Amino acid sequence: MEWLFNPWVISFIVVAVVVSNIAALKYTAHMKFGQRDSVRGTHEKNKREQELDDLISKQAENDKITRRHEK
Asked: Which of 18, 30, 52, 55 measures 20 to 30 Å from 12, CA to CA?
């Protein structure tokens, strides 16, 4: 039990804990979680809505042009 309180053993344990925590952080930094997919889905939905709005505005412009030509 006396060897457990040796400063070298304590230092080794502290360094091992710090290194393992850094390794765990590096490993988990590249993980992908479900919420990111949700954000991507929201972005795609907003893009589709914007495209639909653009098509509607183009159709409205075309309708105005055809009405002018009919008169």
From this structure: 30
CA 56 – CA 52 distance, rounded (Å): 6
Element (H, E) at 2: none
Q: Give the pLDDT of residue 49.
A: 92
Does residue 31 come out as left (phi exceeding 0), alpha (psi in the -120 to 50 range) or beta?
Answer: beta
Q: pLDDT: is 29 or 14 the higher one?
A: 14
Query: Which residue do the tokens 């949700």 mark?
Result: 38
Residue type, 53: D
The proportion of the chain whose per-residue pLDDT surpasses 70, expressed as a percent, equals 87
Query: Both tokens of residue 41?
Result: 């889905």
